[in-house]
Write a structure and sequence with these properties.
433 residues; mainly alpha
């Protein structure tokens, strides 16, 4: 058990609690893997919207609408959760919402564009709320000097969950195709499979994870007071300037990551020529690479330093975009996918650990709410820009993926001013009340 040593954990934290926390990554990763990346995205563009010129833009617009809702709600939600020690309660509510909305996607058939858009917006809002609340537990569990590896434990286990949901879905798709079924018949079943995996795995989280925060004795005013505190934090932005630079960096590079999550299957099928089962195998292998990348990179990050580790992954993302834009063969795209897999797990884990290092201990949910705000800005700008470029150029997705490389370059530039030591001192100097 040395790989998952309790020496990486804060005093009093047990391995079972970390397992419970990491199992939430396991639970919710099926949603991003099956719904947003491998299956429903391409199904929406090709079958629901009938492959129309505007279909990719409609998909990215639906995701952007969900991200906009999250942007303007999650910081206040995080502030309220901190004041009332309610992260776990809110996490349970958001989980139920995402599971039900994911199951409802089974009702979306060819031509049901409006219903598909509505359910994607609802499910993705609940998913993002839950993801932010779950991340806010990380600094309570891990020591500052080992936050990278503990974050990596969660991300790597998350990719195992994504592979489980995708593997079960792939097995069903292959069986259904052998029976002569069409996508309109078998894709809805994969949505039900994903919802069930999410629901069952999350039960481990809620049975093992503790709410360690204590409510503020002076907590009053509900959401209005939470908004007041959030405005006070915004006025103190200069005190947390390294965290703010990290938010700007995330708003840039996470846009590119969002493109990879939301559009990888669409690009593989419409540009490279993959068929649906090939795409699912591709995403499955990508998840294996991401799992190994997140686990190994978490340890390397603690030794190399958070900032340098994130910079390395961003360079890898630039290479991924360039290869994907230039290759014309399935073999060449596999190289891009392999690099993307390693970089996806490591960059997401590194960013979460850096946010945990720079967040004041008494305001974890609030600051992770701000982190989520930045990533949702990116998730709007990235896929929406991709969709707009594709639409404006008559379907030139190669140009769109080439533009995505610039987002990672911008992330590298905005990462440069971050000083982790100075930012950590500022976080620890924050008032406790």
């Amino acid at each position: 058990m040395a790989l998952f040593s309790t020496q990486a954990l804060n005093p009093g934290v047990r391995r079972r609690e970390v397992l419970g926390w990491a199992m939430y990554d396991f639970a919710n990763s099926g949603y991003t893997t099956v719904v947003l990346t491998a299956v429903f995205a391409a199904y929406f563009v090709g079958a629901v919207a009938g492959g129309a010129d505007w279909a990719t833009f409609a998909w990215t617009a639906a995701l952007s609408a969900s991200h906009a809702i999250v942007m303007f709600t999650i910081p206040a939600m995080g502030a309220w959760a901190d004041r009332h020690a309610a992260k776990k309660r809110l996490l349970a509510l958001t989980t139920v919402g995402c599971v039900l909305a994911t199951a409802a996607l089974a009702l979306v058939g060819p031509g049901a564009v409006a219903l598909g858009v509505l359910l994607i917006v609802v499910s993705n809002v609940f998913f993002a709320w839950g993801e932010s609340l779950s991340a806010a537990f990380l600094p309570e569990l891990a020591r500052p000097e080992t936050m990278g590896r503990v974050s990596g434990w969660g991300w790597s286990l998350g990719y195992v969950g994504g592979m489980l949901a995708l593997g079960l879905s792939l097995a069903y798709v292959l069986w259904a195709q052998a029976q002569g079924q069409t996508a309109a018949q078998f894709v809805p079943v994969t949505m039900l499979i994903t919802a069930v995996v999410f629901a069952l795995a999350s039960l481990v989280t809620f049975s093992l994870l503790r709410e360690r925060a204590q409510p503020n004795a002076q907590a009053h005013g509900g959401w209005r007071e939470s908004l007041r505190r959030l405005r006070a934090t915004a006025r103190q932005a200069s005190h947390y300037r390294d965290f703010m630079w990290l938010l700007a960096c995330a708003a840039a590079y996470q846009g590119g990551v969002a493109v990879a999550i939301a559009l990888a299957a669409i690009y593989a099928e419409q540009v490279i020529g993959f068929v649906q089962q090939e795409t699912m195998v591709l995403i499955f292998v990508l998840n294996i690479a991401a799992m190994l990348g997140a686990l190994a990179f978490g340890y390397w990050q603690d030794r190399l330093g958070h900032k340098r580790a994130l910079a390395v992954t961003l360079l890898g993302w630039v290479a991924t975009c360039v290869i994907a834009a230039l290759t014309t063969t399935k073999g060449g795209f596999w190289y891009a996918a392999a690099i993307a897999g390693v970089c996806m797990g490591s960059s997401q884990s590194a960013g979460r650990a850096m946010a945990g290092m720079l967040a004041p201990p008494a305001q974890l949910a609030e600051f992770f709410g701000l982190w989520t705000f930045a990533t949702r800005v990116a998730s709007i700008v990235g896929p929406l820009s991709y969709g707009a470029i594709t639409w404006a150029t008559g379907g030139n997705q190669r140009l769109a993926i080439g533009f995505t490389a610039l987002m990672f370059v911008a992330g590298l530039a905005l990462l440069a001013p971050v000083n982790m030591e100075r930012g950590r001192r500022a976080a620890l100097a924050a008032p406790a009340g």
